[in-house]
């Protein structure tokens, strides 16, 4: 399809880790993209490639200030694909700021979703989370395990659950419930950053690694390029591998690998692969953190044939290389 016939896309949270990779992929496929993010343009370092692309428009904006879609459409015409990633993303921060978390992760999602429904958007993709399952011990976690009765360990988990339920109950839109995403551009600077990026930065610097808890906690880690591919399939931008048909999905789907490794194993692998001799230390567990997490990926797989393809060790090496160069 020639690029001028591509429908425009909105990516909220475009300056972040996942949003910037998704933006780059959409632009590479010839889709015009309006990227919305609260970060000022000069702090949106992940978008250095996108800023040089005439198909890209940046809108510095807080998503809690409504009419986001109307403002984005004013820049780029009719927007048909909406990828909604902007959020309060840190569990611990959400415990300290429950109202801001609910306003950003749920109320703003509801408003954007309403705008999208009224505009007749073709696809609405919400970034859900494994945190929606609380500390449910039934592994692997199936989509139907998260219910109104689930005890969410944090406002983050609760707000994501409410927004995913909105996709399900309205019959419009799709929530992809991501497990632990890792890869280049994940910000290691915050105390609550993704554990992979944090460990790698510490190890590359020759510092010791600190595990909160005993290290036995497990996570289902999925590499960022697999996440981008899951978005493109769920939006109906690329055909589902199993059917060859490109069509937007609705409902809730786990996105992970279906496998898990412990935080201790992760720390040991990072120390071994960076070769700087860091020690692994242990500290008090953090409030709101869940212990075990692993996705049942059968729903998304049976609908689309999607499977994560980047092995954990390869993703880790790519991330270590990127972070070593970025230092
Ligand atoms: N990274 C993971 O492991 C993971 C796992 C499950 C779900 N998710 C979800 O995926 C999405 C993307 O996560 P990420 O890891 O790329 O996070 P990130 O922090 O790198 O990106 C989020 C972006 O949203 C922006 N943002 C935050 N509040 C905003 C607001 N009020 N208005 C406009 N922009 C705002 C931030 O500036 C940031 O650029 C989030 O919704 C997150 O909850 C991530």
TrEMBL record:
InterPro entries: Epimerase_deHydtase, Lipid_A_modif_metabolic_enz, NAD(P)-bd_dom_sf. It comes from the Bacteria. Residues 10-235 form the NAD-dependent epimerase/dehydratase domain. PANTHER family: BIFUNCTIONAL POLYMYXIN RESISTANCE PROTEIN ARNA (PTHR43245), UDP-D-APIOSE_UDP-D-XYLOSE SYNTHASE 2 (PTHR43245:SF13). This is NAD-dependent dehydratase. It comes from Desulfovibrio subterraneus.
């Amino acid at each position: 399809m020639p690029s001028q016939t591509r429908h425009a896309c909105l990516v909220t949270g475009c300056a972040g880790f996942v949003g910037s990779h998704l933006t780059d992929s959409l632009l590479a496929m010839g889709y015009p993209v309006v990227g919305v993010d609260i970060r000022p343009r000069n702090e949106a370092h992940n978008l250095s490639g996108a800023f040089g692309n005439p198909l890209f428009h940046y809108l510095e904006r807080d998503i809690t200030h409504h009419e986001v879609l109307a403002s984005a459409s004013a820049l780029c015409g009719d927007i048909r694909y909406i990828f909604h990633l902007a959020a309060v993303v840190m569990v611990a921060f959400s415990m300290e700021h429950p109202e801001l978390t609910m306003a950003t992760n749920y109320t703003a999602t509801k408003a954007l979703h309403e705008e999208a429904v009224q505009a007749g958007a073709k696809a609405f993709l919400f970034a859900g989370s494994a945190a929606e399952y609380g500390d449910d011990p039934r592994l692997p976690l199936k989509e139907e395990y998260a219910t109104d009765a689930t005890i969410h360990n944090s406002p983050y988990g609760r707000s994501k659950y409410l927004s995913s339920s909105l996709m399900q109950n309205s019959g419009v839109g799709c929530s992809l419930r991501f497990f632990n995403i890792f890869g280049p551009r994940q910000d290691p600077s915050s105390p609550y950053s993704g554990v992979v990026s944090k460990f790698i930065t510490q190890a590359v610097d020759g510092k010791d690694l600190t595990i909160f808890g005993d290290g036995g906690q497990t996570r289902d880690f999925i590499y960022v390029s697999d996440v981008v591919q899951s978005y493109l399939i769920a939006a109906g931008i690329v055909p589902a591998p199993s059917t060859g048909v490109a069509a937007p999905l609705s409902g809730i789907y786990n996105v992970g690998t279906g496998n898990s490794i412990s935080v201790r194993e992760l720390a040991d692998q990072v120390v071994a692969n960076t070769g700087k001799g860091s020690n692994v230390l242990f500290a008090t567990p953090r409030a709101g953190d869940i212990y075990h997490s692993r996705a049942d990926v059968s729903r998304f797989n049976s609908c689309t044939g999607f499977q994560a393809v980047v092995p954990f060790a390869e993703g880790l090496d790519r991330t270590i290389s990127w972070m070593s160069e970025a230092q």
